[in-house]
Amino acid sequence: MTLPSIDKMENDGDIEGLNFSLKNSDVNVRRDATLALSHLAEKGVHDRSSIEHLNIALKDPDEEVREQAGFALTDLARMDVYDRSSIEPLNATLEDPDELVRRSAASALGALADKGICDRSSIELLNFSLKNSDEGNICCQAVFALGSLAEKGVYDKSSIDLLNTAVNESDGWVPELAADALEKMKPHIEEERKGASKDKKKPESGLEKEEEKK
């Protein structure tokens, strides 16, 4: 059987052909197709139809295909091509046994959050990735994603200790990104505290007092 020419498809900007190639039985074709979709997205050649195919590719039996599918979704999001449907499969991919695959999923979630596409369900999994990885690249992506989520008001206090640890004990870009994520959380936490303080000081209504007497 003649294998499709991924190079030709990439040169021709054949998005439909590349999407179809993600289902090919030959693993090298699938690997090359995900990479080609990334290359084209970086050049501004893309189509929303790729998102569904890449979401499915996140479950591919080959770890390189899964990894590159995450990065392709990252590149598409940066070019304003994204969909909320990617969050669930990306969350699932954060539990992938391959660390490089988890890195690409964190990268894509960060890119989506930058565009306002985010969900609290990602936080616990990003926390886990940050806590349980010795790989600087995945820590960078997880911290960046937590910061992007926090900037949109999506955060959880469970991240604070992990980010403080990252500030003090990590190498490379991680401390700077962790400090930035904490700064992005501050105004939302302050608002939360003010709201809680107002609720405590709120005078009881007549009805509430009557209920207490009963």
Essential attributes:
214 residues, elongated, 12 helices, single chain, mainly alpha, 71% helix
Can you tell me about this structure?
The protein has 214 residues and is an all-alpha fold. 71% of the residues lie in helices and 0% in strands. It is built from twelve helices and no strands. The radius of gyration is 21 Å and the shape is elongated.
Portion in beta strands: under 5%
Distance between the termini: 83 Å
Number of alpha- plus pi-helical segments? 12
Write down the overall geometry.
elongated
- Estimated structural class: mainly alpha
Helical coverage, percent range: over 70%
Question: How many strand units?
Answer: 0
Query: What would the average pLDDT be, to the nearest integer?
Result: 90
The helix/strand series, from N terminus to C terminus, equals HHHHHHHHHHHH
Rg (CA only): 21 Å
Low-pLDDT regions: none
Biggest beta sheet summary: none
What's this model, at a glance?
The protein has 214 residues and is an all-alpha fold. The protein has helices spanning 6-12, 15-21, 27-42, 49-57, 63-78, 87-93, 99-114, 121-131, 136-151, 158-169, 174-201, 206-213.
Secondary structure layout:
Elements: H1 6-12, H2 15-21, H3 27-42, H4 49-57, H5 63-78, H6 87-93, H7 99-114, H8 121-131, H9 136-151, H10 158-169, H11 174-201, H12 206-213
Helix pairs in contact: 1-3, 2-3, 2-4, 3-5, 4-5, 5-7, 6-7, 7-9, 8-9, 8-10, 9-11, 10-11
